[in-house]
Amino acid sequence: MAGFRNELVGFEAPEGWDDKTIVAFAAPVEPGKFSPNVVMTKDKLKAGETLRSYADRQIMELARRLEGFDLMESGDRTLGGLPAMEYRFTWTSEHAELHQRSVMTASGSDVITFTGTSTHDEEAALDEAMDKLLATVTFPKQAGGYSPAGGGAVPPPAPAGTGWTPTR
After folding, report:
1. Which of 92, 96, 113, 126 is in Cβ range 3.0-4.6 Å of 68 for a Cys bridge?
2. Where in the chain are the domains?
3. pTM listed for this prediction
4. What are the tens digits of pLDDT across the range 142-163?
C-alpha cells in the first residue's frame, strides 16, 4: 500500500492508488519577485519504457503545452549514483520568461525528477542551490545506499562532480 511519511505527518493511501509524490522547496520570497524553486516528483515508467523514452515523452509534452518552449541543452549525467538525464529549457509564462532545469532518473520502475525554476536574473543562484541539493541525493533502496535506520545518521557525502555531459 502506498503511503507517505516525514517528520510532520504520515498516512496510508487507499488500496490501488499510485504514489505521485510532489515535494517543493522555494527560496525566500522577495516582494514583487518570482521565487526560485525546486520541485521533486515521482512517477512510473510505462511497460517497456526506458528512462530516455520517458524523458523524451515528457519533453515533447512540455514543448506542446508551454508557450515559447525552447530546449537549450540536454545530456546524460548521474544522480545519486544512478544514470540520469538533464534538460535545460525556457518558456514564457503570463508574467515572465522562465528558465527550468530538469534532472530525472529511474530507480526500478520509479522515475524521480527534480525541476528547478527561476527567471533569467535568478538562474545562476538557482543553479548553485540546485547543484548543492542534487549532490545530496541518495536512493536508500539501491544496494549500499543510505538508510536512515541508523537513528538519523547523515547520508554519505556525494561523489565529486555531477558527471553531466551536455549533448546540445
Report:
1. 92
2. 3-138
3. 0.80
4. 654 433 333 333 333 434 444 4
| 118 neighbors 33 (Cβ within 8 angstroms) | no
C-alpha cell at 72: 537549450
Q: How far is Cα 93 from Cα 141, in angstroms, rounded to an integer?
A: 37
Scanning the structure block, which residue is given the C-alpha cell 561523489? 159
Place of cell 529511474: 106
Element (H, E) at 126: helix 123-134
Amino acid of residue 128: E
Q: Which residues contact 64 (CB under 8 A, 6 or more apart)?
A: none
Distance between first and last Cα of the chain: 41
Render pLDDT for 5-62 as a digit per residue (tens, 0 to 9). Answer: 888 888 898 998 988 889 999 999 888 888 999 999 999 999 999 999 999 999 999 9
The dotted CATH code for 3-138 is 3.40.1000.10
